[in-house]
């Protein structure tokens, strides 16, 4: 009797097994599809950005033989010498067949205006070169660069290209002599913004981002942690603290542009801090990231097991000692994670910076917290809005730099977390 | 660790607050129009590299935003120059004067054409301003001939003008916050609207209604606001051969292999046609200088000299390479003199 | 409260009805105090007490929930007093009052009077930090700090300033570990984390940590419930030794443990202290019907 009962039960169970396994398989498959989908989205993003941007890391340069006429360069007044004229003269020497005014203009347009400044630097550094002929690799104009990289095609009708047939024939001639080549674009990593794509670089914006985030980190981490510790460990639980908590949670959801307006009203208009400076940018981003850090820190504090608190209190630690000696070290990894998330958010922010004047054309590399500067995402935004075709690849390249920054920050966060966690 | 942090924090604040009290600025601060921005930045960069002064800082705030910041007062925290893709309004100048910005020097730098363009894969459009008005206005004169306005009924270009292709009206253009949109509406739409007798009659009888009719763009999907980013419009046009786009001439100039400018009133938007004024949809570009700042902030005089030099804004100047349409030589001379003598703008000039 | 009481009473009778050979009614000895009587039976006073509790009531949720009701009990010098009773009877709540550990719980209200050496520990002038140094506590789950074994012991003395230099600290760590019977097991790995020890060792580490600050009373909240029988036996021996120097209040679920380690036993039931007396008497001749039911395994 009981034996038959068991086998019947087992039969029912076995009958159901197929369905249960199918459900499990289905669920696994859905998960797999979700992961493949998100990975392929990410891959598409990376492929398109890298595909567009990798060429920006190369730059077309042209080798010029430049005669430094002693009549032109007076070592006493190097600033007033006609560098542009010298470059033009050198170009004419290279292509003596070019005579008409219009063609000359086309010829001059093939070399970047940056050549002038490069020549100036060279001569100022070694004035002894005056009177000799030097050969110098100078950057080509962005149109030539685009042609070399294949963005301007030969087979397009002449009127529809930014380079005409004559210019292309000059490029061919240069290529034949080995006087034109692509090399690693150091300019991109060492100079500030420029309206000439071949001279534009990311370093100015990187410095701006660095200073801005430095201020943000130095202010928001201690303030955020202190606020979280006070609210979580010391503050009495009453209506007033409830109100504060609700407000902090609300602030985390406030659109960032509002913080920009606040920064404009308080830091610029009331305190008179300098417009467009990383100092103000950092302050505004501090306001923006504080709620994130406070919320994450409070969650981290809450997750510290009560047994640790009890242990500390039972040997006679005061509340402050309990918090600073035991709770805080255990909560620190969580707090760091929250801070890094906040920082990454701040790194990608442009909207609030618009209000305080950091969306600006800035060529000089900021040297301090007071200098006008811009940040990486703003630089991307500005380049994306520039008419020159060559800025398209710069935009993608800048995005790659920004992503590299984010990855580095996250890696640092993981490293710090591991390090602190190892202290049991 | 904590002590280091505190020290750094204190230092940051001391340097931060300490320097502010010094209250000086050794670079020129420029704000204003995003249309003038590509030209002003080129001059600024050139100026920064070829002189010992710092490179001016240029913010792209839009013309209106620029005038607001510029006119807020005199002092280092306020900008020295504002760019504008339209002339300053009388109300703005009055506001400036109330705020102590008594003397403002106006400098016209050249012209910018607004083009209506499409992809080279499609046939070129030959439009009139009247076509543009009929295709894009929110309300148009009743097609049955009665003296009333109806919501724009035209779906295809052929409906607008039988000589145009039979494709749906799809125009990508800037949003209302943009100076390009203002200028387009004023010159192309209003210019086209005026061709209707009943609208030009309105101009005298009911100015408000006239502006409303001419300046309101339809919102039923035929006109798509594509954001301030003109590059985005260029890319979308390349992908969609049936669409037209509205943007500044410099973007067409950089993308001649992909895009073609439509004829407007039988004139194609070329450099020469805009320069000699035969292309109807073009506008002057300006910047305004705060006279009170000229000798306070180092380099303003030299910057103005650079901007108004022939090698910058002349017929062959480097600004033309960036798509600026130069003024005739006589006009250039007039503004160059105004800059040299810093002649302030009077309310009666507007 | 009232319904709960009824429920427990009826549960006893259900037990009796469901085939338990010992029917409750039959076992009721006429000389025992009736179940319904909630007043404390037995001698709560001891000569020369270390701590005295009078009419201690504890409420949770700002007075909404009453956890223990008017408990009066003395804790004598150098004695081990065991608190027994079914789950939720309030024995843990009671001993957590003795070092004001309940202060850390939001909404917990303690009424009545608790004295340590005739000083009211709930007086406004009393600082809770030195009090906890005087009345140490060992918890149910071993909770060493996530630090080294050495730091676990040295932490308390350091914050109280009981040691001035490294050698004093070393000595104190050694003596505390020796007294807790852990020295031989850990002397070679003092720099390893306390959490790397076995459960029994961890609990002894916690005891060593408690005695390192030289308390007068040690409270133990089910110190052996997470340990195996061998570790339990070691801790029980340790408790017996510690009695020479300290007064110890221990909460336990195990009646055998209570009978092994304690001199006096207090039986709690649903927030009331039902009976208190010498351990031997509680286990052999309880005065209250509920105590009798509990120790004979009828409920709990």
Overall geometric form of chain C = globular
Number of strands of chain A: 4
Can you count the helices of chain A?
Answer: 16
The averaged pLDDT of chain C comes out at: 85
Helix content of chain C: 25-40%
- Report the biggest beta sheet of chain A as strand number plus sense, adding barrel if it closes: 3 strands, antiparallel
The rounded Rg of chain C comes to 20 Å
What is the total domain count of chain A?
Answer: 3
Percent in helix of chain A = 55-70%
Name the beta content range of chain A: 5-15%
Distance between the termini of chain C: 18 Å
Name the helix and strand elements of chain C from N-terminus to C-terminus, one letter apiece: HHEEEHEEHEHHHHEHEHEEHH
CATH architecture of chain C: 3-Layer(aba) Sandwich
Q: What would you call the shape of chain A?
A: extended
- Look at the helices and sheets of chain C and give the structural class: alpha/beta
Please write out the topology.
The complex is a heterotrimer of chains A (424), B (350) and C (300).
Chain A (H helix, E strand, L loop, with lengths): L1 H52 L4 E10 L15 H12 L6 H8 L5 H12 L7 E7 L2 H7 L16 H12 L3 E5 L1 H5 L12 H32 L4 H14 L3 H15 L7 H25 L3 H9 L4 H29 L3 H5 L4 E2 L14 H9 L5 H32 L3
Antiparallel strand pairs in A: 1-2, 1-3
Helix pairs in contact in A: 1-16, 8-11, 8-13, 8-15, 9-11, 10-11, 11-13, 12-13, 13-16, 15-16
Chain B lengths: L1 H21 L6 E4 L4 H14 L6 E3 L3 H8 L10 E4 L5 H9 L5 E16 L6 E2 L1 H8 L2 E3 L7 E3 L5 H4 L10 E3 L5 H15 L3 H9 L1 H9 L7 E3 L4 H10 L4 E5 H6 L4 E3 L1 E2 L6 H5 L6 E9 L9 H8 L2 H4 L4 H4 L7 H13 L9
Parallel strand pairs in B: 1-2, 1-3, 5-12, 8-9, 8-10
Antiparallel strand pairs in B: 3-13, 4-10, 4-11, 4-13, 6-7
Chain C lengths: L1 H16 L6 H4 L21 E12 L4 E12 L3 E5 L6 H7 L11 E8 L2 E2 L7 H7 E4 L10 H12 L5 H14 L3 H4 L12 H14 L4 E5 L7 H14 L4 E5 L3 H7 L2 E6 L2 E7 H6 L4 H7 L5
Parallel strand pairs in C: 3-8, 3-9, 6-7, 7-8
Antiparallel strand pairs in C: 1-2, 1-4, 4-5, 9-10
Helix pairs in contact in C: 5-6, 5-8, 6-8, 8-9
């Amino acid at each position: 009797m009981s034996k038959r009962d068991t086998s019947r039960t087992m039969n029912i169970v076995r009958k159901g097994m197929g369905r249960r396994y199918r459900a499990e398989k289905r669920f696994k498959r859905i998960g797999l599809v979700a992961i493949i989908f998100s990975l392929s989205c990410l891959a598409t993003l990376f492929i398109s950005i890298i595909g567009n941007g990798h060429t920006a890391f190369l730059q077309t340069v042209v080798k010029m033989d430049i005669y430094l006429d002693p009549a032109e360069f007076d070592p006493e007044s190097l600033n007033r010498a006609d560098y542009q004229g010298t470059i033009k003269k050198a170009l004419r020497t290279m292509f003596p067949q070019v005579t008409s005014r219009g063609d000359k203009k086309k010829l001059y347009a093939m070399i970047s205006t940056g050549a002038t400044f490069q020549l100036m630097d060279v001569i100022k550094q070694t004035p002894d070169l005056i009177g000799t002929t030097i050969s110098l690799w100078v950057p080509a104009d962005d149109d030539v660069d685009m042609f070399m990289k294949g963005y301007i095609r030969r087979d397009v009708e002449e009127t529809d290209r930014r380079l005409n047939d004559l210019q292309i024939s000059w490029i061919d001639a240069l290529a034949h002599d080995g006087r034109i080549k692509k090399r690693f674009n150091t300019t991109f990593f060492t100079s500030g913004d420029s309206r000439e794509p071949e001279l534009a670089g990311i370093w100015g914006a990187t410095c701006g981002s660095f200073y801005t985030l430095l201020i943000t980190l130095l202010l928001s981490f201690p303030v955020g942690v202190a606020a979280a510790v006070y609210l979580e460990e010391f503050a009495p639980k009453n209506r007033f603290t409830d109100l504060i908590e609700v407000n902090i949670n609300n602030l985390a959801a406030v659109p960032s542009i509002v913080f920009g307006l606040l920064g404009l009203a308080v830091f610029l208009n009331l305190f008179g801090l300098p417009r467009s400076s990383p100092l103000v940018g950092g302050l505004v981003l501090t306001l923006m990231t504080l709620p994130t850090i406070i919320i994450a820190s409070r969650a981290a504090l809450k997750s510290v097991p009560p047994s640790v608190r009890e242990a500390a209190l039972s040997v006679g630690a005061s509340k402050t000692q309990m918090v600073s000696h035991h709770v805080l070290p255990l909560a620190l990894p969580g707090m760091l994670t929250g801070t890094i998330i906040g920082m990454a958010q701040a790194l990608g922010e442009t909207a609030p910076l618009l209000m305080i004047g950091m969306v600006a054309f800035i060529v000089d590399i900021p040297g301090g917290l007071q200098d006008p500067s811009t940040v990486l995402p703003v630089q991307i935004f500005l380049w994306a809005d520039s008419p020159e075709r060559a800025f398209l690849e710069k935009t993608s390249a800048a995005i790659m730099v920004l992503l590299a920054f984010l990855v580095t920050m996250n890696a640092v966060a993981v490293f710090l977390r591991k390090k602190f966690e190892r202290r049991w | 660790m904590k002590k280091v942090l505190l020290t750094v924090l204190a230092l940051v604040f001391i340097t931060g607050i300490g320097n502010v009290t010094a209250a000086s600025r050794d670079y020129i601060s420029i704000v204003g129009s995003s249309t003038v921005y590509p030209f002003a930045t080129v001059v600024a960069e050139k100026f920064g590299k070829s002189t010992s002064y710092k490179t001016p800082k240029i913010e792209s705030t839009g013309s209106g935003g620029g005038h607001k910041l510029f006119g807020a007062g005199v002092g280092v925290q306020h900008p020295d120059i504002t760019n504008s893709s339209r002339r300053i309004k009388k109300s703005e100048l009055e506001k400036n004067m109330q705020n102590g910005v008594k003397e403002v020097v106006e400098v016209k730098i050249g012209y910018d054409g607004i083009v209506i363009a499409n992809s080279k894969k499609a046939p070129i459009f030959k439009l009139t301003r009247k076509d543009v008005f009929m295709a894009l206005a929110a309300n148009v004169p009743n097609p049955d001939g009665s003296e009333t306005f109806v919501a724009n009924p035209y779906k295809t270009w052929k409906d607008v003008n039988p000589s145009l292709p039979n494709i749906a009206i799809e125009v990508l253009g800037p949003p209302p916050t943009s100076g390009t949109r203002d200028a387009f509406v004023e010159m192309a739409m209003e210019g086209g609207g005026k061709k209707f007798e009943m609208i030009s009659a309105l101009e005298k009888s009911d100015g408000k209604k006239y502006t409303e009719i001419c300046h309101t763009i339809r919102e039923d999907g035929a006109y798509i606001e594509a954001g301030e980013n003109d590059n985005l419009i260029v890319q979308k046009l390349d992908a969609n051969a049936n669409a037209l786009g509205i943007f500044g001439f410099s973007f067409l100039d950089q993308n001649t292999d992909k895009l073609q400018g439509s004829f407007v009133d039988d004139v194609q938007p070329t450099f020469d046609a805009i320069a000699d004024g035969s292309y109807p949809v073009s506008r002057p570009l300006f910047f305004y200088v705060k006279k009170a700042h000229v000798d306070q902030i180092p380099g303003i005089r030299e910057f103005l000299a650079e901007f108004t030099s022939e090698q910058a804004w002349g017929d062959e100047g480097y600004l033309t390479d960036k798509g600026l349409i130069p003024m005739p030589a006589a006009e250039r001379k007039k503004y160059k003199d105004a800059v040299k003598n810093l002649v302030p703008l009077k309310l009666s000039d507007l | 409260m009232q319904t709960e009481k009824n429920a427990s009473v009826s549960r006893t009778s259900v037990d009796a009805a469901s085939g338990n050979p010992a029917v409750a009614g039959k076992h009721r000895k006429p000389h025992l105090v009736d179940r319904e009587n909630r007043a404390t039976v037995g001698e709560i006073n001891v000569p020369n007490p270390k701590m005295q509790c009078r009419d201690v009531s504890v409420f949770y949720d700002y007075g909404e929930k009453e956890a223990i009701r008017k408990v009066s009990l003395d804790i004598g010098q150098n004695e081990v007093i065991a608190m027994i009773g079914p789950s939720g009877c309030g024995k843990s709540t009671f001993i957590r009052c003795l070092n004001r550990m309940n202060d850390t719980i939001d909404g917990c209200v303690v009424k009545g009077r608790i004295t340590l050496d005739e000083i009211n520990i709930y007086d406004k002038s009393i600082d809770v930090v030195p009090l906890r140094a005087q009345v140490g506590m060992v918890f149910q789950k071993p909770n060493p700090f996530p630090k080294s074994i050495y730091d676990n012991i040295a932490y308390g003395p350091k914050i109280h300033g009981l040691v001035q230099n490294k050698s004093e600290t070393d000595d104190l760590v050694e003596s505390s570990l020796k007294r807790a019977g852990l020295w031989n097991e850990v002397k070679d790995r003092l720099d390893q984390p306390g959490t790397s020890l076995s459960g029994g060792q961890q609990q002894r580490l916690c005891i060593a940590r408690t005695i390192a600050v030289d308390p007068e009373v040690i409270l133990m909240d089910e110190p052996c419930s997470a340990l195996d029988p061998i570790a339990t036996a070691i801790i029980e021996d340790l408790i017996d030794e510690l009695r020479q120097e300290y007064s110890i209040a221990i909460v336990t679920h195990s009646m055998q443990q209570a009978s092994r380690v304690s001199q006096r036993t207090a039986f709690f039931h649903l927030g009331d202290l039902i009976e208190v007396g010498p351990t031997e008497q509680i286990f052999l001749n309880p005065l209250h019907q509920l105590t009798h039911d509990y120790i004979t395994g009828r409920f709990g």
